[in-house]
């Protein structure tokens, strides 16, 4: 419970996973029926990139700053980039909206968000960020419990976004258990699980377990330098259960541009795992 995302806000994993998140939301909005979103590890909501917490590592400079400064983005990325620019009306990047704000700002009148955050300080900031919106419920607690307590949601169409901090050594096992429980309780729901890539094969065990759940699985991975590079986080993945129809084609149109924008060294790339 010591993890604070403010140190990492707007970094390259944020850009990758939040771009995909907003594309999933845009697909949900193509149908008139309302939908629900559950954000299990929501964080503080809005992050000040000029604050000491963000400046200390400066990770946003290799993430959202690069993307905002680069031209030629595919049209499918425009909704995500527009939501970020809405928080940065001037030149540059001074604030970064986390997943709960990106979701909230994407909702229609009848759509709903339930956001969970375990860290008490960030849970308090999250309540302040979401500002009493009646479409939104904020819960201070363990996001994995949402798989049991909040599923299936009302409305019965929608998405669970799971973005854990990977503070513990058994996080992959926790994701696999949560996915199995989630699919059992809400077999028609969409699920998105984020995971880090530090070396080749980092998530192979998790993806194999997700394949066995009896629903369609699609994973997208992006790495900014060779996965063999020692000493840190080289890439980022998002495993999708029950992805929207032809969502793989959308990723094939957007990931090459993101990969080029975020590349930091030789060997950068991306891939889909089906």
Termini separation: 33 Å
CATH classification class:
Alpha Beta
Per DSSP E runs of 2 or more residues, the count of β-strands stands at 10
The run of helices and strands is HEEHHHEHEHEHEHEHEEHE
Strand order of the largest sheet: 5-4-1-6-7-9-8-10
Structural class: alpha/beta
Number of domains: 1
Shape: globular
Which assembly state applies to the chains in this document?
A: single chain
What fold name stands as the CATH topology? Rossmann fold
Overall pLDDT confidence = 94
Helix content estimate: 25-40%
- The CATH homologous superfamily is called Vaccinia Virus protein VP39
Alpha plus pi helix count: 10
Largest beta-sheet characterization: 8 strands, mixed
- How much strand content do the residues show? 15-25%
**Which consecutive residue ranges, at least 5 long each, have pLDDT under 50?**
none
CATH architectural label: 3-Layer(aba) Sandwich
* C-alpha Rg (nearest Å): 17 Å
């Amino acid at each position: 419970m010591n993890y604070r995302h403010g140190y990492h806000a707007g970094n390259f994993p944020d850009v990758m996973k939040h771009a995909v998140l907003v594309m999933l939301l845009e697909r949900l909005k193509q149908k008139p029926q309302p939908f629900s979103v559950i954000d299990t590890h929501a964080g503080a909501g809005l992050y000040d990139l000029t604050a000491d917490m963000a400046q200390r590592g400066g990770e946003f400079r290799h993430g959202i700053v690069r993307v905002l400064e680069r031209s030629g983005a595919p049209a499918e990325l425009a909704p995500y980039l527009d939501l970020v620019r809405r928080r940065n009306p001037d030149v540059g990047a001074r604030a970064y909206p986390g997943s709960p704000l990106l979701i909230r700002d994407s909702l229609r009148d009848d759509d709903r968000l339930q956001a969970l955050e375990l860290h008490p300080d960030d849970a308090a900031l999250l309540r302040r960020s979401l500002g009493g919106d009646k479409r939104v419920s904020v819960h201070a607690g363990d996001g994995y419990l949402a798989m049991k307590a909040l599923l299936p949601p009302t409305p019965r169409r929608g998405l669970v976004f799971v973005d854990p901090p990977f503070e513990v050594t058994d996080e992959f096992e926790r994701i696999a258990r949560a996915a199995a429980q989630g699919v059992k309780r809400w077999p028609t729901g969409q699920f998105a699980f984020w995971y880090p890539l530090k070396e080749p094969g980092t998530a192979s065990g998790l993806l194999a377990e997700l394949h066995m759940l009896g629903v369609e699985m699609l994973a997208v991975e992006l790495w900014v330098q060779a996965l063999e590079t020692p000493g840190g986080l080289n890439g980022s993945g998002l495993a999708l259960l029950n992805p929207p129809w032809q969502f793989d084609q959308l990723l094939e149109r957007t990931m090459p541009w993101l990969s080029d924008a975020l590349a930091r060294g030789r060997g950068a790339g991306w891939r889909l795992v089906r």
